[in-house]
Amino acid sequence: MPAANYFIAAYPDGTFSARGKEFALKAIYFERKLELGMEGHRYFDLSRWNIAEETLNNYYQYEQAITNDLTGAHFTGNKNEYYPIPQSQIDLSVSNGEQILIQNIGYQ
Fold this sequence. Notes:
Layout (H helix, E strand, L loop, with lengths): L14 H5 L1 H15 L6 H7 L3 H13 L22 H6 L1 E2 L2 E2 L9
Antiparallel strand pairs: 1-2
């Protein structure tokens, strides 16, 4: 389908004030998902909005019923949003005899 045939109508006036904050947030989440699809922003949006664990685990559960590529996949909140800090960097971060860096939660 050519892009010229693709049309998204504007939200009617009062849509968000009448339906509340939750509806407005869901609309923002959906718009960003459409607008920035395949540009690498989705994971960071999910993490920033604190919905990564729920969204990704629902996705894994759905996909595991279709294919075995994601068998055993699970997203752990407050851990998988971050990479572990390399121990060598923690060891080098000493000031006045005290370590400055501490390991991210879930990697101790």
